[in-house]
Amino acid sequence: MIARHIANRISRFSQTRSLRTIFPKTTVSIASRPFSTDPDSLVDKMVSSTFCHVAKCQPDSFSEEEKNSKKLEPRTISHSYRKFVIPLSTDTNKQKQYLSAARSVRLGKILEDLDHMAVHVAYVHNSDNGTLDEPMTLPRTIVTASVKRIDFHDIEMHPSRDVIIDGQVTYAGTSSMQVCLRLFQNDEIGNLNQLLKAEFIMVSRDPLDASKKVRVHGLTAKTPDEAETINKTKEHFRRMGSSTNKQPTNEEFQVIHNMYSELVGRSMVHDVAVLSNTEMWMHKTNLSVTEICFPEYQNMYGKIFGGFLMRKALELAHTNAKLYCKGRVAIRSMDQIEFQKPVEIGHVLHFDSFVTYTDGKYVQVKVAATISDQHKLPELAKLNHPTLGEEARVNTNVFNFTMESVENPNVLRVVPKHYVHTTSYLEGRRLLNNTLKRIVK
């Protein structure tokens, strides 16, 4: 429930890192009414307003001709900007929900809020007059297609201080959008620190037929920084469908060759790979969990909420990394999170995690989500190899996480034993190296 009386002194809403940004430099005066006392600024209000907005959608209010011909005026980036608070300072129910076993903030719960926020901002971008009190300019369903990236700054979240979340649309194509989100929290002396930055890819679909795209409002730049952001994201969308970047390079083939030459060179038996006591086979790092999808996990469209899937994947990856590193770990980044198929209520949901690459104290973890439906086993089996029978599954999601070992600076080197693991190894190597270039000084 939305808390009525929440009071917290919030200092300036500004960045603490020297990164170029296209976000507005909004401030909240300490002398003025605290931001978190406004019921409309609470994260629960953000979620409920999105649900109400979608509930008022009338899919039959436009003909097919009108859907294709209606003029959609381009928006500015600031048009969709929104800011909300997670009231951890005084709301005891929220504190319990967000408290982790390590007495910090459950990042999985934060991911759920980020997903809700991305959907909310995308609807604001496509609403009349920039408010969800007004109807949609066209009947549409907006869902998360993927998460391009979430980078976590090396700052510990405090479980009893308010968390600020803001975001805006930073790119709009024909039916897809990029939403950029940030998270902030006060430190012990009142300075507001940026905790993370996230980039979500959203798509607009017909409420009556999810296979049909629905146009979204375009985006116009008002500054050179905005124009650069839009152009870079446009190039990212262009590369998304290309398979060229997924193929191993000559340098990567050489990495695998050198690794196996080293492993085989240790053995007195021809073509037998031998690990040292500082290495582990990738398939030995597998950790899995299975869930039944209950109605409580559903989103406003009756499907399983994407934020729930991200939370479960993160918590599994974190557990796997903690066991692998034999100590406490911190998440540094999430990359290339894909929502390939919707998950339905009643599905049996399987999460399988592997450590795919290591470098010193850094660990890359991949989580794959699959579903099996006890009522459609023959149908699912046809999609897989028929010999799988009742074990037939369909892939729905892929998640990639970069973790840092806090207590053990030199973790075991992971080694792929099979070809399928070799591709995961090279993918993990790319992701981890890119993360280190971005966020590690």
TrEMBL record:
Q: Which family does it belong to?
A: Belongs to the acyl coenzyme A hydrolase family.
Report the protein name in the record. HotDog ACOT-type domain-containing protein
Question: Ranges for the HotDog ACOT-type domain?
Answer: 75-208, 283-409
Which domain of life, per UniProt? Answer: Eukaryota
UniProt-listed PANTHER family: ACYL-COA THIOESTERASE, ACYL-COENZYME A THIOESTERASE 9, MITOCHONDRIAL
The record's section on SUPFAM superfamilies has: Thioesterase/thiol ester dehydrase-isomerase
Keyword Hydrolase in annotation: yes
Look up keyword Transferase and say if it applies.
Answer: no
An example of a GO molecular function for this protein is:
fatty acyl-CoA hydrolase activity
Listed InterPro entries:
HOTDOG_ACOT, HotDog_dom_sf
Gene Ontology terms: cellular component: mitochondrion
Q: Which GO terms describe its biological process?
A: acyl-CoA metabolic process
List the keywords (alphabetical): Hydrolase, Repeat, Transit peptide
